Amino acid sequence: MTKYVFIKHEEGNFLQSEEWGKVAEKVGHKSIIKDFGEGNLASLIIKDARRGRYLEIPGGPLIDWDDKAKVNQIFDEIKAIAKAEHCAFIRFRPQLLNTPENLKKLPTGSKPAPFHLHAQNTVILDLEKSEDELLSSMRRQTRYEVRRSGKLELAVESGNSKELFEEFHKVQVETAKRQNFIPPSLEELEAYREIFKDNAKIYKVKTVKPISPDGKKLLDEATEDSIPVGSIICYGLFISYGSEVEYFEAASTEYGHTLPGAYTMLWQVIKDYKAMGYKRFNLWGIAPPNQPHHRYSGVTTFKTGFGGEQVEFIHAQDIIINPLKYQKTKIIEEIRKKIRHLG
Fold it and tell me: Is CATH 3.40.50.300 correct for 2-116+316-339?
């Protein structure tokens, strides 16, 4: 049934898959796949957080949003599940563009959530374009860095081994300390690998020849201060499902600032998944428009350099089940949002 739903709802990605629900269960949440018939489906995750128990629908539900009566009927069923599960509220972020017309399609009782949910603002590349078209749509500096990485003969490897995921986790923990974010646990990464199997891949970039300390040219032989052969530059975790592949997690070493590893990694990912027949590459998370101090502003410059379409989905919505408990959640999340510079 899920495969049929993803054919009907091509906008869907791994967030509404059975596999994502199994990942949630693996790390301690409850998952419910609810089939409403006629190609309408929702992957529901019951989460117990410090701020309260709630029902989450990331990237969904996958339903006919043009039928308002059906939308309300479906959400009445979801509300019944939330009440039975003792949830304070429902949080969902549909795969609908943030337009006045689409906002009218939301179920009765929806209100903007105090916190975002999974890549509300992002960049999506059309992988059905030719490689020449994809290159030409890049920002000039991005295209230059892609070509520079070729001249430096950086090597890109990919795989799904347990050892590679552990290696990625170790470097991401160090990256998180430098950049002040909370990385997924090794348990979560292992769940992605075990459940999504080959649809969850780690890419990594390394040097194969000695490079000058400023990262500008190859050297015939290593010197005392050159960048050594075999130096790891960066990693990326990519999850593919349906028609789409996501740049879900990243990590980098000290060489990430000097060498264009991330550029060559993403260009290789674009070529690989294009060859496999995927239609979209979601670069997963940029700053909202006109927010230069947002914590994602730096990575936004990098991601938008690859061209593509800057997409803003409808902001996460809440439907309140228990007003008193919900108020506690709202206060905590508004404080957290300010501390993390997320708006």
Answer: no
